[in-house]
Amino acid sequence: MSDSPIAVVTGAYRGLGHEVCRQLARQGYRVVLTARRADRGEAAAEGLRAEGLDVRFHVLDVTDLDSIQALADYVRDTFERLDVLVNNAGIFPDPPPGSGAEGVFSTDVDTLRRGLETNTLAPLLLCQALIPLMHERGRVVNVSSGLGQLAEMDGGIPGYRISKTALNAVTRIFAAELAETGVKVNSVCPGWVRTEMGGPQAERSIEEGARGIVWAATLPDNGPSGGFFRDGNAIDW
């Protein structure tokens, strides 16, 4: 079996996740691209394989425990280990900014619940299922957002903000409990990126946003753990 490192990237059939797959594969990783939509996920993986990259697809609904376990079983049975987990899959559950309905007084519990389920609980459950396959050495990247920073917390879009702040707590907890191992867990804010979520007016390209994620996914053994980063630089929680 090849000694090339193994990476799993969630929510990766387009945007940041897709580019992270590309950049990791170019560095010699064997990448498992995951997505909820099988047709789009397989097409995305096929496109990267056409570039000469070692990328394969596995379907994953991050909100479904059986789907998470099936992915863990696949990684264990196929590779026997995992080196990198990038928790990229996420949603923007709130009404669009400027709609007049995106404030905390008008938000409903379903919006909050959907945000937490996908943006917070899913990464936690994926960590529970996949970190044991890292065999005491690995890298976990939770793709967060500056909109979840308590230091700069503002009003509006509570479903997204709360779920990303909570995701940062997940990062800190896992990092602390894994401190005596070689597994490093960090949050990364990719910045405002021109994805479907970020919109065409965003200031950063997908390639730029992905670089900071890949930096955290490929940290050396003396790299940080339990931090929040943008472009490889620490930022406030």
Biggest β-sheet description: 8 strands, mixed
Helix content: 25-40%
Distance between the termini: 41 Å
Q: Given the C-alpha coordinates, what overall shape results?
A: globular
Question: What do you see in this structure?
Answer:
- The chain has 237 residues and is an alpha/beta fold.
- Helix content is 39%, strand content 16%.
- The protein has six helices and eight strands; from the N terminus they run βαβαβαβαβαβαββ.
- The protein has helices at 15-26, 38-49, 65-79, 109-130, 158-177, 206-217, and strands at 6-9, 30-35, 55-59, 84-87, 137-143, 182-188, 228-230, 233-234.
- The chain has an eight-stranded mixed beta sheet, sandwiched between helices.
- Helix 1 packs across helix 6, helix 3 packs parallel to helix 4 (109-130) and helix 4 runs parallel beside helix 5 (158-177).
- The radius of gyration is 17 Å and the shape is globular.
- The chain starts with 5 loop residues before the first strand and ends with a strand.
- The relative contact order is 0.15.
- The model has no long low-confidence stretch (mean pLDDT 95).
